[in-house]
């Protein structure tokens, strides 16, 4: 049996359903929307991630005997509500941005149409997934552009919760990273995995040379040898002596990389290992990656900064009721009025407006009806779930690959300002349009 | 069947074992240590969390057919290593700080004694758990002291990965929070759960009054009503009118809380609801909690900042080989020499030295042998796992409660400087002592 995801939920989602069932309003047709009020400080764009993963988690959002027993024992909800939860499965529809799509402030990333109760109960899970995964993808995407085409590997599993690590590997790959250290991300999501050895391996042996020899024996000369356990020039010399001209790469995980990379390149070239690559892995983020652009580094391994969203570990998305039917069956747009948290009511139809050259000029959100046909742009919403059934194009390995392509395509539409690392305004403005 | 945790692992852990098996060194008795080189910027102390959770994950660290098949198909390791992995279970010993204990730079939080291969393969999982959970607990502990005895609830599930949310709720509870919104944390770890309703519930109804009435009907007058969906004074008036003098609390989730809390208190008192409490939940962290100390707020709900470690989402712990036997059976202390990452070799025996009044004066780490009996202090290491079997005192709900008590006890030993929120030095120095 697949593990239930139903208790990965805030208690208030269930007490709201309990009160609504008692009041007879739980079945009111409703529209919920997930969006971010702003991008993380100074970012020019965000990258949507988590959608495909979320759709699979929603399919497992069922209250089994064990979940119901916990709720009963803790008197979380009434018996009537327990009965309703026992029969729960999501039967509504979900529309939204494709995974990998770029987003801006107030982009309506996910729109859930269902009864109030069916939609509200998914709030916590939807936000957990979108907030974490999009935080990682948004940070990772900046690192990828900063690397100017050199490959990046995600190696941050140890710097985030053990299951978040899998999500982070997936999100970074969608954002353009080439591989991950995380094996579960390889199994579950088809992300290419990589990695050879840590300092502990070198120290297991009586000498660095013995360690290198053991590694080359097992993994071949094309492996990556970690050369900074003791002394880098000595490590490089030993690595080349042991592995020969076929040595795949050396890895540097400490020191002043700006100067070290160049000196190691010279040393490798001097030893005849002109094809041996240099990979660096020491507390990198988008800024240090950019700073290394002028060095002969060949690839990057990124840990903490990517799995923690490089300073913004949650994307700041919220999930709001934007419309519902009243007792009379008429739709009512609803909006919260509290000062800094006002929301825009009504069903949205977002379009990325493009100029004649195909460059994005605005994120235009048509409210209440779709954009007129004359508008030059790309409609951003697609159907993700119909009557409770997810479109398989978004699921599994296939969904991940599609998302990775989507991110690459969406980035090509962005104006050059989007790729500045310095803090600033979103690359295009978000505009509301009434049709 | 319990889900295997064995692929929540960096690929290089397995390739190192592969090379070590081939070289015949994988069985060398070894000592690994988990520690943080520093506390997150400016913190005065950290709180160890995740230990009990980790011990349960280690018990599930087994390579089943599905895991082995993935490794085989992807040629991660040789057939000999696959055979070794198939038989893997951790049979070594783990010593460490009790969960909930306070820690400082270089505190040897976890010591793993086993063969090289048995110990190295746990690196990623150990660090994922300790880094995330300790990050949350360390931040949460500061919020608890800033709240000056007023209760806090953890409500950040939506701001971190869906499984990290459960770990965060557990870690915050260990650090002194009183409850969580997260139902799975209630089920799995026995953390008290709480929550009543969100803005969406109010907007589901045709009026705020109808919503409040529905909530009181279902949850009783002692419930907490969210009063800031439209207009706070109007919301408070409606809440009191609907629920009467028994109204449990009102919740404020927006606005300038510094002034709002006082005006809502006056309004409640003026309406005769002197026993109705005020809870606030708007983007709080340790600093805003401290700033609200002078207001008549009764309790706090904290989201993003606690589940993301309030600016330090990973505690920065590392896991290093510190000693191993050589081919001759002699123990060798090993240490990495790279510039900013030097480690102290050898088996550690940490003691919190106390002055005559029982106040901590140093984190003294005896290297190579235990502290002399004359030392006034508290030995910090306890046995967590013996020959592969975890001490049940650290597991499940019982382990969580013990950790929560441990944190409270450990904090009472700290000098007053430890509770300053401003950035500064660790509350006590870490000192190495040779016996």
TrEMBL record, chains A, B:
Q: What class of enzyme is it?
A: ligase
Q: How is it modified after translation?
A: Transiently phosphorylated on a His residue during the reaction cycle. Phosphorylation strongly increases the affinity for substrates and increases the rate of nicotinate D-ribonucleotide production. Dephosphorylation regenerates the low-affinity form of the enzyme, leading to product release.
Residue ranges annotated for the Nicotinate phosphoribosyltransferase N-terminal domain, each copy included: 7-131
Give, as in the UniProt entry, the pathway in which the protein acts: Cofactor biosynthesis; NAD(+) biosynthesis; nicotinate D-ribonucleotide from nicotinate: step 1/1
Domain of life, per UniProt, equals Bacteria
Catalytic activity annotated for this protein? 5-phospho-alpha-D-ribose 1-diphosphate + nicotinate + ATP + H2O = nicotinate beta-D-ribonucleotide + ADP + phosphate + diphosphate
Pfam families recorded: NAPRTase_N
The GO molecular function terms of this record are: glycosyltransferase activity; nicotinate phosphoribosyltransferase activity
Q: What are its E.C. numbers?
A: 6.3.4.21
Record flagged with keyword Calcium? no
Q: Has the keyword NADP been applied to this entry?
A: no
Q: What are the entry keywords?
A: Glycosyltransferase, Ligase, Phosphoprotein, Pyridine nucleotide biosynthesis, Transferase
Q: What does this protein do?
A: Catalyzes the first step in the biosynthesis of NAD from nicotinic acid, the ATP-dependent synthesis of beta-nicotinate D-ribonucleotide from nicotinate and 5-phospho-D-ribose 1-phosphate.
- Family membership, please give it: Belongs to the NAPRTase family.
Q: What is this protein called?
A: Nicotinate phosphoribosyltransferase
Q: Which organism is it from?
A: Herbiconiux daphne
């Amino acid at each position: 049996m697949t593990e239930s995801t139903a208790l990965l939920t805030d208690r208030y989602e269930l007490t709201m359903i309990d009160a609504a069932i008692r009041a007879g309003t739980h079945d009111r047709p409703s529209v919920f929307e997930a969006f971010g009020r702003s991008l993380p400080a100074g970012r020019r764009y965000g990258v949507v991630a988590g959608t495909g993963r979320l759709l699979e988690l929603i399919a497992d959002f069922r209250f089994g005997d064990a979940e119901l027993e916990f709720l009963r024992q803790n008197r979380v909800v009434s018996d009537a509500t327990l009965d309703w939860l026992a029969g729960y499965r999501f039967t509504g529809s979900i529309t939204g941005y494709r995974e990998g799509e770029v987003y801006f402030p107030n982009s309506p990333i996910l729109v859930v149409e269902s009864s109030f109760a069916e939609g509200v109960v998914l709030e916590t899970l939807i936000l957990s997934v979108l907030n974490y995964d999009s935080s990682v993808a948004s940070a990772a995407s900046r690192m990828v552009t900063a690397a100017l085409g050199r490959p990046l590997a995600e190696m941050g599993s140890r710097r985030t919760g053990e299951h978040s690590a899998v999500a982070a590997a997936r999100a970074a790959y969608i954002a353009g990273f080439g591989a991950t250290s995380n094996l579960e991300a390889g199994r579950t999501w088809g992300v290419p995995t990589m990695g050879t050895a840590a300092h502990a391996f070198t120290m297991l042996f009586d000498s660095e040379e013995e360690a290198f020899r053991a590694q080359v024996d097992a993994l071949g000369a094309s492996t990556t040898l970690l050369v900074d356990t003791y002394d880098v020039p000595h490590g490089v010399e030993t690595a080349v002596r042991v592995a020969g001209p076929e040595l795949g790469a050396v890895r540097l995980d400490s020191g002043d990389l700006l100067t070290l990379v160049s000196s190691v390149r010279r040393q490798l070239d001097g030893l005849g290992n002109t094809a041996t690559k240099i990979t660096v892995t020491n507390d990198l983020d988008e800024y240090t990656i950019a700073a290394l652009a002028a060095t002969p580094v060949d690839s990057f391994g990124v840990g903490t900064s990517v799995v923690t969203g490089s300073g913004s570990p949650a994307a700041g998305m919220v999930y709001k009721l934007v419309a519902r039917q009243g007792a009379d069956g008429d739709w009512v747009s609803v909006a919260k009025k509290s000062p800094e948290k006002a929301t825009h009511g009504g069903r949205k139809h977002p379009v990325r407006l493009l100029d004649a050259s195909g460059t994005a000029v605005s994120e235009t959100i048509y409210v209440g009806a779709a954009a007129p046909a004359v508008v030059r742009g790309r409609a951003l919403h697609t159907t993700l779930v119909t009557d409770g059934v997810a479109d398989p194009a978004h699921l599994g390995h296939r969904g991940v690959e599609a998302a990775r392509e989507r991110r690459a395509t969406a980035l090509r539409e962005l104006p050059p300002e989007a790729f500045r690392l310095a803090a600033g305004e979103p690359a295009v403005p978000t505009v509301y349009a009434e049709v």
